[in-house]
Amino acid sequence: MRTLFIVLMIILALAVAIVAVLNNEMVTVNYIFGQVELTLFTLILGSALAGILVMVFYGIYRSIHNYIKSESERNLKKELQRRVKFLENENKKLEEELERFKKEREEAAERAKAELEAEKNKLSEELNKQKREREEAVAKEQAELEAEKQKLEEKLRKQQNGNDVLEVEEDSPEPQKKGFWDFLKR
To answer: Which DSSP symbol is given to 32?
Structure first.
């Protein structure tokens, strides 16, 4: 693109030079402060040189403007890179802190789990203890009831043996009177 521009500029300069050489007559040029008589050749070349100077100064201005703009962009880029590094470091610190909090939370959860497990075991032992005590109390009560039952059965056998003896002794036709207590003994 740049070489094409240079080739076009050379062609344009040759065209201006040819036109200037072909025009040799004198012309009067009026400007703000007076007037001057020049050859048309000199006027054309002077105008071309003035145009070239304007373009050169405009190019210099654009170059300076682009340099300042690119310098501010470079400074902005450096500032952004500095901020990116700062934010990356900050992000790294926050990730480390997050990881530390996760570890602390996991450790606290493990401690709570261990405490709950210990409490569960304690309650389970207490429940088993109470269960054994009830079983022992029930077994003791059953043993007492069994002993009472045996005593009552023994009494009943004695009474039945005693009644058999009484029935044998009493062959008399008189019926025995039954009392209130006799009724309850049956």
So the answer is: T
